[in-house]
Amino acid sequence: MSRDMDTTSSQKRQEIGQVVSGSLLEGLKMKLNPENSVEDIRAGKFVVVQGEKNEFFSMITDVILETSAKGLLENPPQRDDALLKLAVSGTTTYGTVQLRPMLMLPIGSQEDMRPVKTIPGHFSLVYSADSQDVNRIFGDERVDNKFFHIGTPIDMDDTPVCLNLERFVERSNGIFGKSGTGKTFLTRIVLCGIIKNRKAVNLVFDMHSEYGWEGNVEDTQRPKVRGLKQYFQDSVAVFTLDPNSSKRRGAPVDFEVRIPYSQITPEDIVLLQEELNLTPTTLETCYPLVTKFGDTKWFNELLSMSMEDIKDFCAQYNVHQRSLEALQRKLNVLAKSCSGFLTKDEDEKGTDAVSSIISYLTDGKHVVIEFGQHSRPLEYMLVANILTRRIHETYVRLTEEWMGERGPKPIPLVITIEEAHKFLSPALSRQTIFGTIAREMRKYNVTLLVVDQRPSGIDPEVLSQVGTRITCLLNEERDIDAVLTGVSNAQSLRGVLASLDSKQQALVIGHAVPMPVVIQTRTYDDELFRKSMGYRTEPPTRDEMEREISIDYS
Amino acid sequence: MNVPLYIGEIIESSTIEFIAESRELHSPPRFGSFVKADLFSSESNEQTSISTGIEDPIEDPFATNAIKPSSGYSQMQEDLPVRISPAIFGVVYHASTTNTDTTRRRAYWKEEEQLKEEQPELSEWLLMTEFRAIVVGYSENGRIRWHLPPHPPRIHSFVYPCTTDDIYVLTSRFDFLRTLANFRNAPTEEILAACIREAAQVYEDRATEFKAKAAKELARLMRDDYELLQAVIRRFES
Predict the structure, then answer these.
(1) CA Rg, chain B, in Å?
(2) Is residue A94 part of a domain?
(3) B172 SS3 class
(4) Confidence class of residue A159 from pLDDT cuts 50, 70 and 90?
(5) In terms of pLDDT, which residue wins out, A113 or A167?
(6) Residues contacting B35, CB < 8 A, separation 6+
(7) Residue in B212, B220, B226 closest to A71 by CB
(8) Could you tell me if B74 lies within 8 Å of chain A, comparing CB atoms?
(9) Residue of A91, A93, A94 to mutate, interface with B, max B Cβ within 10 Å
(10) Which of A193, A210, A341, B109 has the fewest Cβ atoms within 10 Å of its own Cβ atom?
(11) Window from A388-397, A423-432, A469-478, B36-45 with minimum mean pLDDT
(12) What mean pLDDT is predicted for residues A520-544?
């Protein structure tokens, strides 16, 4: 599509300055045209530098005030020197803007964007990008359903920035931002995109019961927003650990989750060591128990041990008695505090939550697990870990069958976890299933969508594997550093990240977007969003899902 | 009113400036105002001048010019004149009245009227008002050039005030400011400010805009001398 053929773009390129210096490593310096006010230039704005042979798609990373006049700064114009002020502004005092070229493309070429390997010459003109530039880089959801509109660039209200969902689900992803910056809304938007465009199945560990039926808004005047279940009735199943809470909220529930003691493994307890305040020695005593009673019975057996049993056991297995007693005490606390969903009964196998979740997922249905009142980290982590471990095992099996040509390709699975730093802290990430998933990436078709407000708490090794990072405002230096781990040009993006609005703005970096971009995120659950999601009456059949996904992935 | 247009006659001429005797005693053109002198074509050595054939021109020879004073400033830059009479343009930077007879260069201690009665030869013959103008450009073949003419104006040719149209065209570019700023025979800030004040009058209600543009140009010219810039701008801003 040639530039002049496009009639839909309402934002035209506008000249804002010219390149005066720069380097490939440091980025470009642009002198702002005198008629443009520095205040109109926002960090994160998307601009195009027209070189002699190439166009460079760049992001504004810094705005600087400069002067070429000697003595002016020592003796600046006074309040009533209006004309003097006017005279020097734009001439000897001017704004320069730091640009970071992200992609380049030969002028007139229809090829794909290339990484930047050179820079434009002196005095190349710089333009603010137009809609067509944005579409060319980020794709157009009207053209291909792998693209999904998640927001608009800064200062361009009617041009969608799209996420490439196919690339998005290939890797683990992160949505970061401090509390109250709209992480949950952004997550809902992304989940809606994945569901609507059928790029993967979702398993959402919904800590605060915000995704399934309806979600809260901070402004109490406004109505609650619809959850995934309301948007995609039949293709989303809501599981709950706390049916009473669901009932109170009037949220329909498809399934109650009960987890028998037999599902708990020492690994789950390792994850909880901090929450339960367990010492390493105490933790180690789990293993002799497993040796003696087996994987499925140890937990139950430990809880029912008497003092005598403990003494005998310690003597037999050379275990420190105090440790075993401590373990029993702490796990008793665990069993009690999780009594809402942990069950002793082994005969509830017919309603085994894990197998029904897996069967939903392999049917192409999305599962949201609500925690209701059981939203303490202890409970959340235990359940998420137990379920994910089993699901991951299943996926490994399915994928291996597929590789051996003995089964269909499993539908990619995206697991959404909140408070991710609790699972993925440097101390735990090697021991929990989430660390494994984050590292294994797409090998087994299971990826994570990590939602977190303290990215600095996440193991750097895991963070470096995160494909796409959608980051709302972060203030803490360490969090900013963490989010930018493994990103080239991190320094220039720092300023951009720190200058985001506190609501509805995010920096998107990584695998699913060709270049980093700051977006004004689209509004969740407004008229437009509802319309673009469409209320579907029929869920996609397994066949439909499979067809679409096998085409996309083969 | 049959007012003669010329205001002076050149008595000393050089490439960068000319000195003229004022037609009226005590009435030189205003400091900083624009004047023009005839341009003699170098090739034919013929005067293609403003006053050709007019002994004592009483009509404005520029009246036929296409430029309307009302046309906007920015518009001026786009459609520069295609027809403007050949002339050398200058800015008045100095004026003085002296006694040409140096032996009688003294005080008389009389009232002006009494002095006129008793010493009529003073005002009629001996006293002379002269002014000096720095050349800021010329016009040839209907086009304005903002640089020095190939030849200085001829001695004893007449000097005229610039018309509104002339000033419009001349000031459509600010090259003359640089010439003035680099001129060392007059206080730079005074001549610059006076010239901008004079030119601004022509722009009437657009004077503020003109001054702002001039100020920006000055800022560029004087980026190394902020004190001077400040001095100039304060002299013409209100």
Answers:
(1) 19
(2) yes
(3) coil
(4) confident
(5) A167
(6) B7, B8, B20, B29, B89, B90, B91, B92, B133, B159, B160, B161, B162
(7) B226
(8) no
(9) A91
(10) B109
(11) B36-45
(12) 70
B197 CA: distance to closest CA in chain A (Å): 14
Expressed as residue numbers, the domain containing A382 is 169-260+347-533
The verdict on A51 and A110 lying in the same domain is yes
- pLDDT value of residue B135: 95
User: In chain B, which residues have their Cβ closer than 8 Å to the Cβ of A85?
Assistant: none
- Using CA atoms, how far apart are residues A287 and B138, in angstroms rounded to an integer? 102
Q: What is the pLDDT of residue B8?
A: 93
Residue A1 lies in a domain: no
Number of folded domains in chain A? 3
Nearest CA in chain B to A82: B237
Q: Is the ipTM of this complex over 0.85?
A: no
Q: Which residue has the higher pLDDT, B227 or A440?
A: B227
Within a domain: residue A288?
Answer: yes
Which tokens belong to A528?
């437009």
pLDDT at res. A8: 40
Give Cα separations from A33 to A15, A38, A89, A127, A502 (angstroms): 8, 9, 11, 11, 30
Asked if B19 contacts B131 with a C-beta cutoff of 8 angstroms, the reply is yes
- Tell me, what amino acid is at A99? L
Count of positions (residues) in chain B: 238
Say if the Cβ atoms of A84 and B233 lie within 8 Å: yes
d(CA A162, CA A159): 10
Q: What is the CATH number of the domain that holds A433?
A: 3.40.50.300
Q: Is residue A134 part of a domain?
A: no
Where chain B has pLDDT below 70, the residues are 1-4, 41-84
